[in-house]
Write a structure and sequence with these properties.
Layout: H1 16-31, E1 83-86, E2 93-97, E3 102-106, E4 141-143, E5 146-148, E6 150-152, E7 164-166, H2 168-177, E8 189-192, E9 198-199, E10 205-206, E11 210-213
Parallel strand pairs: 6-7
Antiparallel strand pairs: 1-2, 2-3, 4-5, 8-11, 9-10
């Protein structure tokens, strides 16, 4: 739509009807499809409020604080675009990669790039840790439905009531230091006491005690 209004020159008598016609023409232009005023090279030094929407066909740069009270959509369903959030360190950023369909956080080595200050983090799919996984001692974590609070390492002992996981070294130490049925120190001897004969139904079984001298 092209904006065309009545022209006035010096000495013309301006009537209310002529002015109303111009106002109606301008209002129709602004409110016509797409319903947005089109500006080229405009600079706003104060606050600007868009109640219907803002469409930018070129680049838009906001130098000050920008407050958005509604939803923010980048692209449309099935046709997205990349989004970057840059940090104060060169090359560190948070990047939504639309083509690879993943969120990439590039931080600084040795520093936390993602920190959940409060609340939980839930992963519906597989969690892969290529650089290792650190669990703080004393914190409770759940593994296969069991709430665990500690990791038993080589040289440490435990009882069946400990809510912990154990390293291979700790398991070996436990067997070498204690017998299975009572907790009596046996040195380097593993003693398994059979309270009743056991058979697996296929001919293999235990009819008495087993001593293993390591």
């Amino acid at each position: 739509m092209t904006l065309s209004v009545n022209d006035f020159t010096a000495g013309d008598v301006i009537t209310a009807s002529a002015m109303n016609t111009n106002f109606a023409t301008i209002e129709g232009y602004v409110n016509s499809s797409p319903g947005l005023a089109q500006l080229t090279g405009a600079t706003f030094s104060g606050a600007v409020t868009f109640s219907a929407g803002l469409t930018s066909t070129g680049g838009t740069t906001a130098l000050g604080t920008t407050n958005i009270t509604g939803e923010v959509n980048v692209g449309t369903s099935g046709s997205g675009h990349d989004v970057y959030f840059h940090s104060a360190t060169a090359s560190d950023n948070l990047h939504w990669d639309a083509s690879d369909e993943k969120l990439v956080i590039t931080g600084t080595a040795g520093q936390d790039a993602l920190h959940v200050a409060a609340g939980n983090a839930t992963f519906a799919g597989l969690l892969t840790a290529n650089g290792g996984l650190t669990l703080q001692d004393g914190d409770t974590f759940t593994f296969d439905g069991e709430s665990l609070t500690d990791c038993i390492d080589t040289g440490e002992t435990w009882t069946r009531t400990n809510s912990a996981i154990a390293t291979v070294g700790a398991i070996i130490d436990q067997f070498l230091q204690y017998d299975v049925d009572g907790g009596t120190a046996q040195g380097a001897t593993l003693y398994i006491q059979a309270s009743a004969p056991y058979s697996d139904g296929d001919g293999a079984g235990v009819k008495g005690d087993i001593w293993i001298d390591t």
